[in-house]
Amino acid sequence: MRNIVAFITYFLAAICLTSCVDEEEFPDTPQGNFEALWKIIDEHYCFLDYKGHQYGLDWQEVHDRYARQISSKMTDTQLFETLGNMLSELRDGHVNLTAAHNMARYWQWFEQAPTNYSDTLERIYLGTDYKIAAGMKYKIFDDNIGYIRYESFLDGVGAGNLSEVLSYFLLCRGLIIDIRGNGGGNLTNAEKIASRFTNERTLIGYIQHKTGPGHSDFSDPEPRYLDPAASLRWQKPVCVLTNRHVFSAANEFTMYMKALPLVTVVGDDTGGGAGMPFSSSLPNGWIVRFSAVPMYDADHQSTEFGIAPHVRVSLTERDFIRGKDTLIETARKLLAN
């Protein structure tokens, strides 16, 4: 219940934030749209100070550099490209600029990383006799290890679905939850699943809210807790498989699970995305989406750039040729021991 109340609070804050972002009017010109976008980020983006410390981001310097590229004779296409490039300076997968003709996005957080996942191998491991419930594909491997493949937290999961799936695995020695390639979705689904793997209220992180236009204007950190589900809960070891494509709500799920005693995260760093995104509009109607509410782990550390696994392992070419998934096989060995 407390998580639901918190979610409603964040939603209402988003409405208030959107109205605040649009309070100053700029003309619908290339210069006006540029200044409007820069100011929205300057006053409401939540990681400007953090990224200044991490890689030297100077948002005022960014303004001055890109302002020289703005001209009253620019076409919409040229303006869109310039504004998209400016937003890429934030290195944030939650930041997008959307127009009728295109969406500017930053994907370099995963483009240079190995995928550590193969749908060909997934078909080998799942076969054709796997079960499906609420977006979860699941089966029991021949070594009595349970396996769940969950590709998106946009796929709703009901309490009944989770109880049925976990009941199916009751006699298994351990469980693998494979979220590789999961780009996120609904935080409620992440909390709902993670709550099946703890028997006590667990501190999983902190959250802050913007209190003013300054880069450091935030409320005090508020603790976030994961409460155990009232329904069937898993009591045996778990391995969560991750790669760089794990982002946003999937990144949060990894953070929740990593805080629990019977869970081992296996694979590569997640992609990050630790800011709750909100949206606003420019004078010409283009929509900018950006991180506005920062979230941290239980050690007060930001996971904006990803979460390291307990056991780092990559998919090898030798295993792929043999029809083996290195991450799944590593998890099976860990659970067997």
What does this structure look like?
This protein has 337 residues and is an alpha/beta fold. Helix content is 36%, strand content 19%. It has twelve helices and 13 strands. The protein has helices at residues 2-21, 30-44, 48-55, 59-67, 76-88, 108-111, 119-126, 159-168, 187-194, 249-258, 317-321, 326-336; strands spanning 96-98, 103-105, 131-133, 136-140, 145-150, 174-178, 202-207, 222-226, 238-242, 263-267, 275-281, 287-296, 311-312. The strands form two sheets. The chain has a seven-stranded mixed beta sheet with strand order 3-4-5-6-9-10-13, sandwiched between helices. Helix 9 (187-194) runs parallel beside helix 10. It is elongated and about 65 Å long. The model is unreliable at 1-22 (pLDDT under 50).
What would the average pLDDT be, to the nearest integer?
93
What pattern of helices and strands is seen along the backbone? Answer: HHHHHEEHHEEEHEHEEEHEEEEHH
Query: Which spans have pLDDT < 50 for at least 5 consecutive residues?
Result: 1-22
Shape field? elongated
Strand order across the largest sheet = 3-4-5-6-9-10-13
> What percentage of residues falls in helices of 4 or more residues?
25-40%
Give the radius of gyration. Answer: 22 Å
Number of helices: 12
Which class do the helix and strand fractions yield? alpha/beta
Counting DSSP E segments of at least 2 residues, the number of strands comes to: 13
